[in-house]
Amino acid sequence: MRIRLKFPRSRRLHLASEFKAVRTAGKSWTGKYLVLAILAEAGPTRIGIITTRRIGSAAVRSKLRRKIREVFRLNQHRILGGFWLITIFRASSVEASSLELEREWLRLAERASILAPIPNDSDTQDITEAL
């Protein structure tokens, strides 16, 4: 089965009220480069990204947002359904590489218990051998 890796606009948080709901009623986990805030909500998992002007110019902020959208896009099949996620960049994130941002985001998501377990390699080998 092929995994779809699309990231349509419907999977993003847009409204200020949605961001406020996550910030007030949700729970957050803090890392060196990012803060991940999560609220359990009915429906598909959606993500919002906050980059403040303290981080840098518009070009720098846009580049960081693109990196996190890509991390979410590539890992969305592992995220359990029914969450609103907000990623907030910290000033230190400007110096971080894409790999460091991805590792930190996944570590925070793991701490928040929103990632589905990765199947063991032995399980996938058994399935392919049976076919």
Q: Can you characterise this structure?
A:
There is one protein chain. The chain has 131 residues and is α+β, with helices and mostly antiparallel strands. It has helices at residues 16-25, 58-75, 98-111, 121-130, and strands at residues 27-30, 34-40, 46-50, 83-89. Helices cover 40% and strands 18% of the residues. The longest helix is centred in the middle third of the chain and has 18 residues, at 58-75. The relative contact order is 0.20. Residues 122-131 have low confidence and may be disordered.
Secondary structure: elements and pairs:
Layout: H1 16-25, E1 27-30, E2 34-40, E3 46-50, H2 58-75, E4 83-89, H3 98-111, H4 121-130
Q: How is the largest sheet built, in terms of strand order?
A: 1-2-4-3
Give me the count of strands: 4
Give the CATH class.
Alpha Beta
Structural class: alpha+beta
Helicity level = 25-40%
**CATH architecture assignment:** 2-Layer Sandwich
Give the count of structural domains.
1
Order of helices and strands: HEEEHEHH
Mean pLDDT: 87
Entry summary:
With 131 residues, the protein is of the alpha+beta class. It has helices at residues 16-25, 58-75, 98-111, 121-130, and strands at residues 27-30, 34-40, 46-50, 83-89. The chain is built from four helices and four strands; from the N terminus they run H-E-E-E-H-E-H-H.
